[in-house]
Fold Phosphate-binding protein.
Amino acid sequence: MLPLIGMLSCGKAKNEDKGTEDKATAATSVTIKGSDTVLPLAQKEAEEMMKTNPEVSVTIVGGGTGVGVTALLDGTTDIAMASRDLKTEEKLKFSEAKKEIEKVTVAFDALAIIVNPANKVGQLTREQLEKIYTGEIKNWKEVGGEDAKIVAYSRESSSGTYEFFKEEVMDKKNYASDILSMPATGAIVQAVSQTKGAIGYVGLAYETKEVKQLSVSYDQGKTFVAPSVASAKDKSYPISRPLFYIFDKVNAAKVKAVVDFALSPEGQKIVSEVGYVPLN
């Protein structure tokens, strides 16, 4: 399954300077690229924003946080969507390119661990998840399930979610060589829904009845918490993270309408509708 691509555009703009209309004024065109986690939120917000800002056209492409950051560095996108912070080497590259970067938190997300609905396992500890993804645990019977091989799905290495999971869940250990990498979050949902022994991880907005979400413990099994907007908001769910828009400060005026809408009450209402956690 290819990364989702959203293309949104609209036309004419009015120049109200001195009360005149400039028929030749072109629309401001903003490109947004990057995180598949942020993608459904960015698409929905752009659609709504353009209803009241017809002078702005927006093009949105997924592919992963790394793709967006590289495009921002290359100057081929105006905004990079990111589901992780910038790496040290990325910050260095921006510095070397003399690009001053602005990073804006637009929402919060809970990273949900998903399995096939037929799986009897309903909860896992962080340590068990680490051992599954490093290849130490290979059978569901080792974590209270049936005698069946674990088929673990991950995002590919360009994904911010891949990096976040490695840092926060796997304690910075390397993924096992037999972990199956998927090009988009939707592909993980589809694979887990069709594979009885599968496990994967996705952003909260990708929640669907086709898969089952697990409760997770970060205190060696004393407390298990299920992922939800409420548990992410009160920080009781341990695998939560901010979602970002990142842009070059040179383009601040160009992207202002998009960023302002994302932070506005209407934009934050869409955050909740999509399935993420608003800032307030």
Remarks:
- Residues 39-52 form the longest helix (14 residues).
